[in-house]
Specification:
The structure holds two protein chains of two kinds.
Chain A lengths: L1 H23 L13 H8 L1 E6 L16 H12 L3 E6 L2 H9 L5 E3 L13 E2 L10 E2 L4 H13 L5
Parallel strand pairs in A: 1-2, 1-3
Antiparallel strand pairs in A: 4-5
Chain B lengths: L12 E2 L2 E2 L2 H31 L4 H12 L2 H13 L14 H29 L8 E4 L2 E4 H30 L2 H11 L1 H16 L3 H30 L14 H11 L4 E10 L4 E9 L7 H14 L3 E8 L12
Parallel strand pairs in B: 6-7
Antiparallel strand pairs in B: 1-2, 3-4, 5-6
Helix pairs in contact in B: 1-2, 1-3, 1-5, 2-4, 2-8, 3-4, 3-6, 4-8, 5-6, 5-7, 7-8, 9-10
Classes of the chains: A alpha/beta, B mainly alpha.
């Protein structure tokens, strides 16, 4: 009984070490990767195609580009990638369709994690409480890069 | 209907069959290992659930881990019921509880396996790209896929070890639920490795790796379910007793007739041996040598000869007949 027990314990310890090791491992820039290459395209073109849907307090839409807390976050993210923002203003459902068709790279509009579009688009980890941005489903390089930037900027507090 | 009293305290029983020391030891060990399995797999279910995110492979692995709780439960319940002695309402005892446990586990595997296979195939057809973002833990931001890999390493190790420890006990105890459990767990590390591959596949941008792996895992669940369903139903149909792994007819089925034919007063013998779960039920028809009528002593001696063959030979009927019954086919 002692032999197998010891071996089991050893394996368990190895697993714990491995789990801990994951936390400190550096994340290379191209891992995870985008199946459709969105982040690469943003870097190559120098353009973030962003969608915005009006939401008082978060996204203000008037003449010209959208303003407010979330558009500022998007501008900051684009600047971090040495890119400009190209805005599309539309309703929430239309933004989801544009994301699915790969016409825009991300969308803001005071969305929260209780969002109903979770099976159509990817949602970032919540920032500023429960708020999220929408990204194309499974573009994990873009999503990870955006989430990191949201962490660093403190969610625009 | 209280459980059978255990004379001598620590002795182990299947019905009124007292287990020989090595089987009693195996049973105690098997019960302990199944409790360990339950605890370990419960923790694995929690860990995988916490990290699964939107990976279909992780979800499938989670369901498989949850299903892995059924066979140990079925084993523990069946062993508990199987100890009961026969009573007026249950003249054959409670050994069939093993078969019921086996069937339950098989149906659960098959149904859930099919469901997951359809879901994974749909994911492939619709070309769903699974999103896996980052997690923020202990002041670090890192890719959530690493957590999934860690969770799968943890879930893969336990079954790998436990399955190998339980396999010899299943043979010793002639317990098919325990065998099904050990056999599935032994292969469970492949599920873990496959899921890790699926998650890393997402990492390098191969969106189909995840659903593809999930489909393979669900098909292996379906396969396990189907095999077990076949074995469980044929055992409940009173098929000729087979070995613990259902590979071939149990050698005892032949040895019963051989032992009886070796008796001086017996000309020929034909028997039915069915597996009640752990123990066998034997009906033997013997044709005495010309015009010899066996005495009660001779018949009783014949029964003890059979009982001495193996601890599993449990309920024995020896019936002297003028002609062997032609309703029982000769063994091939």
């Amino acid at each position: 009984m002692a032999g197998p027990m010891l071996r089991r314990l050893l394996l368990l310890v190895a697993a714990v070490v491995l789990l801990a090791g994951c936390g400190t491992s550096p994340l290379p820039d191209d891992f995870p990767a985008d199946p459709d290459g969105t982040l690469d395209r943003i870097r190559a073109d120098g353009v973030v195609r962003a969608g915005a849907s009006p939401r008082p307090g978060w996204v203000e839409v008037g003449d010209g580009d959208p303003t407010g807390r979330e558009p500022r976050l998007v501008e900051g993210f684009a600047a971090d990638l040495d890119a400009e923002v190209e805005w599309t203003v539309a309703g929430e459902e239309e933004l989801v369709r544009l994301l699915e068709d790969g016409e825009i790279d991300l969308a803001v509009g005071g969305f929260t994690e209780a969002n109903a579009w979770v099976s159509e688009v990817g949602l970032t980890r919540p920032y500023a409480g429960t708020h999220v941005m929408m990204v194309p489903m499974g573009e994990n390089a873009l999503q990870s890069r955006l989430e990191r930037w949201l962490d660093e900027s403190g969610g625009g507090q | 209907m209280s459980p059978a009293a255990e004379p001598g305290g620590s002795r182990q029983h299947f019905g009124h069959t007292e287990l020989p020391p090595s089987q009693a030891h195996a049973l105690r060990r098997a019960k302990r290992l199944e409790v360990v399995t339950l605890l370990y797999m419960t923790s694995a279910v929690a860990v995988v659930f916490a990290t699964a995110g939107s990976s279909q492979a992780m979800k499938t692995a989670w369901v498989e881990d949850t299903l892995a709780l059924v066979p140990p439960l079925a084993f523990l319940v069946a062993v508990r019921f199987g100890r009961r002695r026969p009573d007026a309402d249950h003249p054959y005892g409670f050994h069939r509880s093993t078969g019921v446990g086996h069937l339950t586990a098989a149906v659960a595997l098959l149904a859930v396996g099919l469901l997951l296979a359809v879901e994974s195939a749909m994911g492939l057809v619709r070309a769903e790209h699974p999103p896996i973002g980052t997690v923020h833990l202990l002041g670090q931001t890192f890719w959530a896929g690493w957590l999934m890999v860690g969770a799968m390493v943890y879930t893969g190790i336990g079954p790998f070890v436990l399955g190998r420890m339980k396999l010899p006990l299943a043979e010793e105890l002639h317990d098919k639920v325990l065998y099904a459990d050990a056999d599935m767990q032994k292969a469970d590390w492949m599920t873990a490795a496959g899921t890790i591959a699926g998650v890393l596949g997402i990492g390098v941008g191969l969106w189909w790796a995840d659903s593809g792996v999930a489909l393979l895992i669900s098909l292996s669940i379906v396969h396990d379910g189907w095999t077990n369903l076949r074995h469980a139903t044929s055992a409940l149909m009173d098929e000729r007793a087979r070995t613990y792994d259902d590979e071939r007819p149990h050698p005892l089925t032949r040895q019963v007739d051989e032992a009886l034919t070796n008796l001086s007063w017996v000309e020929d013998s034909r028997s039915r041996v069915r597996d009640q779960g752990h123990v066998f039920h034997v009906e033997a028809f013997v044709r005495p040598s010309a015009s010899h009528t066996p005495t009660l002593e001779q018949l009783e001696a014949a029964v003890s000869v059979l009982r001495d063959l193996d601890w599993k030979i449990h309920d024995v009927v020896v019936m002297p007949v003028r002609d062997l019954p032609d309703t029982i086919p000769a063994p091939d």
